[in-house]
Write a structure and sequence with these properties.
Blueprint: H1 15-51, H2 55-92, H3 94-106, H4 121-137
Helix pairs in contact: 1-2, 3-4
């Protein structure tokens, strides 16, 4: 199905996969929660207004909650877009420099330990192994 391997589709194999899944699903959960709250509050207000036979105010109440909901959704989406860029930057940015330094080692121009910033966890995990290979090449 969809070119997947035979392993379990829902298996979380690393913390990086979990972070990616959470980043992708968080907007869905936040917006669903917001719509649930808005539906509950709006329904209660509309019921109260209908019980008072204030039919003219129902449209205003619905419009007010509509605008609040739209603003919340856009603020949430903008926030998650920034989080997505930050996550992608933290995940991918160290690798072009690492590749350049590995190429220099392979060309014989450098025989040093390659390091990444402490917060670049994935890069540091990879570099432990790369540095081990470099030390064995000496």
């Amino acid at each position: 199905m969809f070119g997947m391997s035979k392993r379990n589709f829902f298996l979380i194999s690393s913390k990086y996969q979990m972070q990616t899944i959470l980043l992708l699903l968080s907007p869905l959960f936040v917006i669903a929660l917001a719509l649930t709250v808005v539906s509950y509050v709006l329904g209660a207000q509309v019921d109260r207004l209908l019980a008072q036979q204030s039919f003219g105010m129902v449209a205003g109440c619905i419009a007010q909650w509509f605008y609040i909901t739209v603003c919340f959704i856009y603020i949430s989406l903008i926030t998650f877009v920034f989080l997505a860029f930050k996550f992608a930057q933290d995940l991918v940015n160290p690798f072009p420099r690492i590749l350049k330094e590995v190429d220099a080692v392979l060309a014989g121009g450098a025989k040093k330990v390659i390091i990444a910033r402490p917060e670049d966890e994935l890069a540091n995990d990879v570099l432990k192994r790369v540095n081990d290979l470099i030390s064995r090449m000496k």
